[in-house]
Structures are given as structure tokens and as C-alpha cells.
Amino acid sequence: MLDYAALAALAEIIRRGSFDAAAAALGVTPSAISQRIKGLEERLGQVLIHRGPPATGTETGLRLMQHLEQVRLLEATLDGARRPGAGPARLRLAVNADSLATWFLPALTALPLLYELEVDDQDHARDWLRQGQVSGAICSDPQPVPGCDVHPLGHMRYLALATPGFIARHFPDGVTESALKRAPAVIFNQKDAAQSRWAEQATGRRLHLTGHRIPASEAFARAVDLGLGWGMVPESMAGAGLRELVPGLPLDVPLYWHVQRAMAPALAPLTAAMKRAAADLRP
């Protein structure tokens, strides 16, 4: 039987980054927090916290934190099952930044929970689920993680956009391989492959692109609006003054909702809301 008071201490340390902050959140002394973690680590025979600073969870520590959150979530869905002092039910999800900036947020109103979102590229969000750190994830990969169900949501359409002035300056002879190599792109982060995938689609060649790195969806689209570079912008965020580099050549990225099978009944209202919120995505 796991010590849930110790698990609560573990979760707060990971969430807040220090033993002192966890103690303040739980209304106990830092010494009590240390004793709970020490006892839990001794019982399991594993280190659960990298002491930092900041304090972070080991792989096992993160899995235990996720277990506690799942227990709290399941209790929250059962009338009268909540333990006194158990703390609010939380749900950790992984979602790509463009979904978060466009269609995703309304779905979160489906359950009265505290949400903790991990933002990652749609090609990599599945890793959070595979590592047991989240209960659900929005991914571009339809292959289910063991123990998870997968629901298709549709396709997010991206357009390769730039200002007319940028196109005239950098692509006077059209979108060629050499022009794409020279023209600055706007890139979300080191995991963002959308520009490279579209360039390969346009030229038939894998190209090494250079440009600005701007890891925020709204700022990314604004940078393209300002003519800093060309970029793959979600169709729903495309500025009116922008033009496609190659008209009629979009990049459609499939999206799937992956959810842990054990949590699926408790998260059924969220799954239904996710599908409704994603209804405007392309089939």
C-alpha cells in the first residue's frame, strides 16, 4: 500500500521545484516533507527526487506523481469517494502549441479539474504518454502507446505564408531549392519539422533551412505577418495580408487524441468535448 501523504509531498515538490515550497503548499514543515520523501524512497529502494535546485522528479518519481493524479481524478468522478484532505483533482495532458492556440481550450471545460499542460510538438507529444507522465496527449502519430486508446480528430491545415514584399524580395523567380535555402524561415523550435516537410513537398528534396526561432504560436504568426520570414501558419491563424509561397500546396497534419485506457471512462466527457472542439479541423 502506497503512502498517499508521501505521494502528495512528492507531487508538490516536483510541481513547485523545492521542498520548502511543497511544505508551504501542504501546510507542514520542510522537515516533515523530507521525512515523507525519505521514507518513500527507502520503501521503494529508489531515488525519486533530483534535489536540484530546482528539485525535479526522477522517471519513477514522475510516474508516482502521475499515479496520484490518476487516483484523485478517479475519486473525483465517484460520489463520496473523495478522501478528506486529498487535494484537488489534477489532470496532466500533452498538447501541441498550435492546437492550444486555436481549437483545444474549450474542451477543457468538460471536467471540473485543475489542468497541467505540457506543450510539445505534435510529433513528440506521444513521448510524454509513453513515459507515463501524462494521462492523455494530442499527437500526429496514430500508433497507440500500449495501454492507450486513440481517437482521430482530423487534420490541422498549415499554409506556407509570407508577406508579398518578402516573396518579391526572396522568391523573385519562384520557390526554388536555392531560394528556399537562402530565405529566412520562421521556425517554432528545434523539433519543428513543418517547414522542412513543406519544402520537401515543394521541391522533392530535403533542404537545410535557416531562420528565426520563435517558440510561441501567436508570436510565430506575428513574425510572419511582419515579414521577418516565411513560415507554416495554421490556416485559422493566417493573416489577411499574407500570400502562399505556392498557392494550393498546403501541409495537412493529422491529429489524434491518445488517452490511457484505465482513465478512459473518467475522461469520457473530455474525449467527447475534444471531438466537438476539433470538429472544424479538416477530415
Question: How does this model look, in words?
Answer:
The protein is of the alpha/beta class and 283 residues long. Helix content is 37%, strand content 20%. The protein folds into three domains: 4-76, Arc Repressor Mutant, subunit A; 90-155 and 254-280, Periplasmic binding protein-like II (D-Maltodextrin-Binding Protein, domain 2, 3-Layer(aba) Sandwich); 156-249, 3-Layer(aba) Sandwich (D-Maltodextrin-Binding Protein, domain 2). Helix 5 (97-101) links the parallel strand 3 and strand 4 (114-119).
Give me a quick take on this structure:
The chain is built from 11 helices and 11 strands.
Kindly name the structural category. alpha/beta
The number of helical runs is 11
- Indicate the mean pLDDT: 90
- Superfamily (CATH H level) name of the largest domain: Periplasmic binding protein-like II
Primary descriptors:
283 residues; alpha/beta; D-Maltodextrin-Binding Protein, domain 2; two-stranded antiparallel sheet; 11 strands; 37% helix; elongated
Topology:
Layout: H1 4-16, H2 19-26, H3 30-44, E1 49-50, E2 56-57, H4 59-76, E3 90-95, H5 97-101, E4 114-119, H6 126-130, E5 136-139, E6 148-162, H7 164-170, H8 177-182, E7 185-187, H9 194-203, E8 211-213, H10 217-225, E9 231-234, E10 243-244, E11 251-260, H11 268-277
Parallel strand pairs: 3-4, 3-5, 7-8
Antiparallel strand pairs: 1-2, 5-11, 6-9, 6-10, 6-11
